[in-house]
TrEMBL record:
GO CC aspect terms: endomembrane system; membrane
Pfam families: PA, VSR_TRX
Compartments where located: Endomembrane system; Membrane
Protein name, UniProt field: Vacuolar sorting receptor 3
Keywords for this protein: Glycoprotein, Membrane, Receptor, Repeat, Signal, Transmembrane, Transmembrane helix
Record gene name: Contig18909.g20061
Species of origin: Stylonychia lemnae (Ciliate)
Principal localisation: membrane
Domain Vacuolar sorting receptor thioredoxin-like: 214-408
Keyword tRNA processing attributed: no
């Protein structure tokens, strides 16, 4: 499968006078005429139109956002099955420009249909984490958070990382350069109320969908509790996808040939060529490396045959529950016996990955670890644990439902269980597909006709029966009157004959 772009962020400024419309990697200016032309951008592209604004403000907003936006993906609530688009109006609080303090409730200006949602811009820094900023703004019902970097460096490689308290955040955020952010903030400060009322942004968070199979990787080590917790929880979601996804575990190592001998003897192999990045108190780095290799061997075996691919997940779940993060050879052996795996075969796989029987020699190589290191350099995120979807780093919370949502977004056509599991959220300005299908209308009409027919039929039968009963009563009454009139005459004629 080709190496695709997986995440792009789009942001559109529209100002009655200035309308920024996004497509990919191109800058197209529709007006004024002297600025018309097409320019290639790195990630973002804007189309600009001017009707009322003066040229200085046009120029300011034209350059207000460049191609340096990086998306923090939080998919837990916002459905990415069809690219998320949101239109918003920009807000800024000079008294809380870092967003580190809680915001007081604000009555955001919205349009009649609720299509224009509040976007908020804050600055990086202030002694608080990205998560704190986003959560403070989520608490006052902001839709999208724009964070301005605190330096002039490019932001493509900045990861809006979780400080450990990011669970449950349900709004997206993005980071832009200091230069671009300053231009946006300056505009908000200088603009009149009329101009602020005209200002609108559109943010679209999209993931490339090159085909109908998603590849995702997890970078971790066997001693990392957070990663093991995620694997244990995510097993049920991976099973839903089946062959529609390809999951690959990757393990992180580092090199330290100049470290002290005690460290090399406990935590490294090949004289510091392969070291564990997360040594524990209860086990050495060498034990961690061995377990990483055992897990890799199990994965290659069960995923290679594709007959029992979920055995790897079951193994991780077992060793994590029974040994937590202290997964040594004894723990692994017990798991092999419990799950019906061949421990000696796995150990042989680990040994065969080394080029020499003496793992301490500086000339010794390990083909599995070398492959992981090369892949890390090319596609790794630089942090662990981390998830890479379609060869792009996933920047959201490492939580099962959030990652499930992100993977669903990677499909060209999302499976039905994505929608059924996540539900749907579609902004007001998008076509929600509401309304009744024509076939349903036809069925409703036919049902109404049938019901009316039954009602008329029953009414006519009831009316006919009632008419017959009334006629019978009248006939009986007439007959009774006839007999009543005829009897006196007969009795009178008999008395005369006597």
């Amino acid at each position: 499968m080709e190496k695709y772009q997986s995440l792009k962020s789009m942001i559109l400024l529209a100002l009655l006078g200035i309308n920024l419309e996004l497509s990919s990697q191109r800058l197209q200016i529709l007006s004024p005429t002297q600025l018309q032309g097409k320019f290639t951008g790195k990630i973002l592209q804007f189309n600009i139109r001017s009707d009322q604004m003066d040229q200085s403000k046009q120029a300011m907003l034209t350059s207000a956002i460049s191609h340096t936006a990086t998306l923090l993906q939080e998919y837990a609530y916002i459905n990415q099955l069809n690219n998320l688009k949101q239109i918003g109006r920009l807000y800024y609080d000079a008294d809380n420009h870092y967003g580190c303090k809680e915001f007081s409730h604000q009555d955001f200006q919205v349009d009649y249909d609720g299509d224009i949602t509040p976007f908020y811009i804050v600055e990086r820094g202030g002694g608080c984490s990205f998560v704190t900023k986003v959560r403070n703004l989520e608490n006052i019902e902001v839709s999208v958070v724009i964070i301005v970097n605190d330096s002039d460096k490019e932001v493509e490689d900045i990861v809006l990382s979780d400080d450990g308290t990011g669970g449950g955040i349900r709004i997206p955020s993005m980071i832009i350069t200091k230069t671009d952010g300053k231009k946006l903030i300056d505009f908000v400060k200088r603009a009149s109320q009329t101009e602020l009322d005209q200002l609108a942004l559109m943010a679209e968070f999209m993931m490339e969908k090159p085909d109908n199979r998603v590849e995702y990787d997890l970078w971790f080590t066997s001693s990392n509790d957070r990663a093991l917790d995620f694997i244990t929880d995510f097993q049920q979601y991976d099973q839903k996808f089946g062959d529609k996804v390809l999951f690959t575990p990757h393990y992180v190592f580092w090199k330290c040939p100049y470290c002290e001998k005690k460290y090399l003897d406990n935590d490294c192999y090949a004289n510091g060529k392969y070291c564990a990045v997360d040594p524990q108190v209860n086990m050495t780095g060498r034990e961690i490396i061995q377990e990483d290799l055992r897990q890799k061997c199990i994965y290659d075996k069960v995923y290679g045959s594709n007959k029992n691919r979920f055995m790897w997940w079951t193994y991780i779940k077992y060793v994590h529950y029974n040994c937590y993060s202290t997964i040594n050879a004894d723990c692994s052996k017990n798991a092999h016996q419990k799950l019906g795996l061949d421990f000696q075969e796995t150990q042989k796989c680990v040994a065969d990955s080394f080029s020499d029987s003496n793992w301490d020699l500086s000339t010794t190589t390990n083909k599995v670890i070398d492959s992981e290191i090369d892949y890390w350099k090319q596609y790794g995120s630089g942090i662990f644990p981390s998830i890479v979807i379609n060869n792009r780093t996933y920047r959201g919370q490492i939580e099962s439902l959030a990652v499930f949502n992100a993977i669903c977004a990677g499909f060209e056509i999302a499976p039905n269980y994505c929608q059924s599991t996540l539900g749907s959220y579609t902004p007001d300005f998008l076509d929600k597909g509401d309304g009744i299908k024509g076939s349903v209308i036809v069925l409703i009409v036919l049902a109404l006709i049938f019901i009316n027919f039954v009602i008329v039929y029953c009414y006519r039968r009831h009316a006919k029966r009632e008419l017959q009963q009334n006629m019978q009563v009248h006939i009986e009454s007439a007959v009774s009157q006839y007999f009543a009139l005829s009897q006196p005459k007969e009795s009178k004629s008999k008395s005369y004959q006597k």
